[in-house]
Description:
- It is built from five helices and eleven strands, in the order E-E-E-H-E-E-E-H-H-H-H-E-E-E-E-E.
- It is an alpha/beta fold.
- The protein has two domains: about 5-70 and about 150-205, no CATH class; about 85-145, no CATH class.
- Strands 3, 4, 6, 7, 9 and 11 form a six-stranded mixed beta sheet that branches. It has a three-stranded parallel beta sheet with strand order 5-8-10, with no helix packed on it. Strands 1-2 form a two-stranded antiparallel sheet.
- Strand 1 and strand 2 (about 10) form a beta hairpin.
- The two termini are about 20 Å apart.
Amino acid sequence: xxxxxxxxxxxxxxxxxxxxxxxxxxxxxxxxxxxxxxxxxxxxxxxxxxxxxxxxxxxxxxxxxxxxxxxxxxxxxxxxxxxxxxxxxxxxxxxxxxxxxxxxxxxxxxxxxxxxxxxxxxxxxxxxxxxxxxxxxxxxxxxxxxxxxxxxxxxxxxxxxxxxxxxxxxxxxxxxxxxxxxxxxxxxxxxxxxxxxxxxxxxxxxx
Length: 207
């Protein structure tokens, strides 16, 4: 589903859980040992009717770095929603908690049923995008099956999505940093993977 803007830095999508961050673009870059000298300076314009997929590859126009961690709490900081924002009611957690006892998920994936695999993903998503303390007992299973946790960093000074054009963020979890984002009517930014988005200035020209 296309995302819709709530304000200049917060987006909501039914396809993926993600949020903006209050940290500056420069602070986000420094987290990964980068600076604004490293990101794309030239404007990226997605022409009408064109879809550009962002995935970790050197040919990707905004891709900077693929990083990973085995620390689940750090991964939540990278792409998830802080517990405090869930508790305040600003963000809604995933609809469902896992149902299978945690110990049943702490075995080889080949030994898990389809229902158990679904619950494993449910536990991971709730840890990242809900109150992690409610699924703390699933930590070992999440780390066992999903680590190392990877995140792709994309950054650009200006991105313009023309009418009927789309940017799709796919594959790896992502951090998307854009100083100025312009989305024309009929243009879309779609996230199909967990991601954190930071946009300094959002422009939505009228028809």
